[in-house]
Amino acid sequence: MSDKGYILKEADLLPLSIGAALLGTGGGGNPYVGMLRMRELVRKGAEVRVIPAESLADDAWVCEVGGIGAPVVGIEKIEEGGECYRAMRAVEEAAGVKVSAMISAEIGGSNSLEPIIAAALAGLPVVDGDGMGRAFPEVQMTTFFIYGAKAAPAAIADDKGNVVVFKEVIDMFWLERFARTVSVDMGAAAGLAIAPMRADFVRRTAVPGTVTQALNIGRSVLDARTRRQNVVQRVVAEAGGKLFFTGKITDVRRELTGGFARGHAILSGVDAWAGSEARIAIQNENLVLWVDGVPAIMVPDLIVNLELDTGEPITTEVLRYGQRVAVIGLPAHDLLKTPAALEIVGPRAFGYPELTFVPLDGRPIAA
Q1: pLDDT (mean) for 112-136
Q2: Beta pairing, strands 49-51 & 163-166
Q3: pLDDT digits (tens, 9 = 90+) for 13-67
Q4: Helix (H) and strand (E) counts for the chain?
Q5: How many CB atoms lie within 10 A of CB 251?
Q6: CA–CA gap between residue 143 and residue 223 (Å, rounded)
């Protein structure tokens, strides 16, 4: 990618949505719906440039946006489309600054498209990066907040035109608490924008290159299908991952509580080498994979379910009995594996005090 970046074309949207679904580790909202919304804007003449953070002046303002709520709701409650845009404009007004670029809270799922849609409506570029390198269920679980972003002003907007501004918030945990409560009242699906961040801060704290990464992963999936290659193997090679389990889903349990879809999936193995049974814990995203009772992958590393024959990423809201699934693991970015990050996005932060994070790539955790 050049210093000026590149223009997203209509043909890029499908592979981007596929790659984002994969990086979403089961969450982030339904990417196909987000792709359709952005496609309509492109067909009406909208143009969005993806740029490296290095191309922005140090004092330029970048706004992080994303959908907040439960992904399972997004299947039936389609967003109006301008939620994140309205939240961004409200934050601009509250902060008294002019935003120069958008960035994704999380590259996973439909949230990969949210800043692109908002950027198209605002006539702004999108930074090639995000705050997770995957998807996480809670507001505070971004590299921006982990490394010092302000919790306010922030704003949340719904499909009906309601906009709520959080003028002063003590910290990121209180922002999650307040925003989650409001999002439930908004129908468990809304758009959230946090306080604008300086570009020099974004360069230090964003997971870089993830828009391009998602695009490349999606292209490899489509290319493998065209060439009748093993799609799972191509994805593993392109994403730098490892195949951990292949099996059939024998049980899925989900319940919507506190603005989250929580539950688990049970898989029965189809290949003896991979084990006889696997269990995946879910809170919007896939959190922990156990194979025959032994933890094999855990947050913040990525647990990805792919349809065994097509390599199509399967988000948690569409998991169902009988699906044949390949479970792959991808290493998280180093920014998510520091002691400070693990306090926020490690297994103990999700209620698994018995688990100590061991990175998939085997590298020591940075100090």
Answers
A1: 95
A2: unpaired
A3: 999 999 999 999 887 777 888 888 899 999 999 999 999 999 999 999 999 999 8
A4: 10, 17
A5: 12
A6: 32
Whole-number Å distance between alpha carbons of 126 and 206: 13
Q: Where are the beta strands (DSSP E) in 105-241?
A: 126-130, 154-157, 163-166, 189-193, 197-198, 207-208
DSSP codes joined into one string, 92-109: HHHHT--EEEEEES--SG
Q: What is the number of alpha carbons within 13 Å of residue 149 lying toward its C-beta?
A: 35
Is 264's pLDDT higher than 90?
no
Asked whether 286 and 305 are in contact (CB, 8 A), the reply is: yes
Single-letter amino acid, residue 198: R
E strand spans, the chain: 6-7, 49-51, 61-69, 99-104, 126-130, 154-157, 163-166, 189-193, 197-198, 207-208, 242-257, 260-269, 277-283, 285-291, 294-298, 302-307, 324-330
Q: How far apart are CA 113 and CA 137, in angstroms?
A: 17
Predicted confidence at residue 32, as pLDDT, reads 82
Q: What whole-number distance in Å separates Cα of residue 226 and Cα of residue 29?
A: 27
Contact 107, 211 (CB under 8 A): yes
